[in-house]
Amino acid sequence: MPVRQKQTAQAPVFTERTAWRQFGTGWVPLHGSVLGSGVSFEWHDFKTHAPFDWGQSFHPRTLEICLNLEGDGKINTGRMEAAFAPMTVGFYCRAQQPLRATREANQRHQFLSIEMSFDFLQQQLGEFVTSLHPLVRDVVSERPEKSFVAPVAPMNSRHQQILSSLRQAPVLAVAQPAWFRAKALEVAAELFFIGQDHEELFCHRQKRLSAERVEKVVTLLRKNLSQPPPLEEIGRAVGCSTFHLSRTFSAAMGTTIPQYLRRLRMERAAELLKSGKFNVTETALEVGYSSLSHFSHTFHETFGCCPGLYPLKTPAQKTEVRTST
Asked: CB atoms < 10 A from the CB of 42, how many?
């Protein structure tokens, strides 16, 4: 009797076409295939009336670059988050576990993505491993099992020129495989290289950016004490996600953004009351409190006396009076 061979079920091949099907011609594959040549280029131009699960389009074991022209997108690993605002560029890696990523609702989204498989990066960049960005270095040398997102940066003129040329390849069809491969390496040279000697400079740059963002937040809050912008709007103004901004601010200032706003409001309230030109109700409204009882409670917590008695009866002044007598 013939022996029947046991058939083993194969895992389905990943495809992102399902993710983009709802947008029709809003998703345009320009060249290549991650499963074939190891690199692919795609153009996206669509509108969505509900948040779109962008992460379902990310190939496993692939590093992807996003040149973002319009629309807001977020990518989150649980430990790191990147926010793609208009005219920004960045990259992220999906290892085995999926990335949480969304595109905001009621916006037009225009961006170009370049996907590179781990094998492609190993073959093309292996000899440069010591000069690569630390996150890319991990992919090329260790092929990590953990996904990641890199910090997002403003799109400069070179990025814009690259994006423009990629949308319409200026060479014959027969030459396009070589041309697109060269463009992939050009973008990699722009974004992935940092150099062993410059790694410390990279860290200093990140610290400087964090300090600048914190300073911008403080400025925004001081200008808008009565009606401060939402955290999402502040994040867009300083160029990073709310998650990253909150962590950066807390690390630098030792307090959260809402707590710092409350402190600024109380400091301003004390100045107004001390001037004698504002009564308690006017002061509360001036610094953004619609509830007088809430304002009075917060003020008492901060200064140790109710606002109606300030600045005559604060604990510090009582101590001064007893000492002088």
From this structure: 20
DSSP state of 313: S
Tokens (6 digits) for 27: 């998703």
The answer to whether residues 202 and 45 touch, using CB atoms and an 8 Å cutoff, is no
Q: What are phi and psi of 245, to 5 degrees?
A: -65, -45
pLDDT score recorded for residue 318: 45
SS3 233: helix
Amino acid making up residue 144:
P
Residue 199 has pLDDT above 90, yes or no: no
Which tens digits make up the pLDDT trace of 102-121?
999 999 999 999 999 999 99
* CA end-to-end span of the chain: 114
Rounded Cα–Cα distance for residues 315 and 325 (Å): 16
Residue 310, classed as helix, strand or coil, is: coil
Global pTM value: 0.61
**Residues 6 or more apart whose Cβ sits within 8 Å of residue 102:** 51, 52, 53, 54, 55, 73, 74
Q: Which residue has the tokens 């709802």?
A: 22
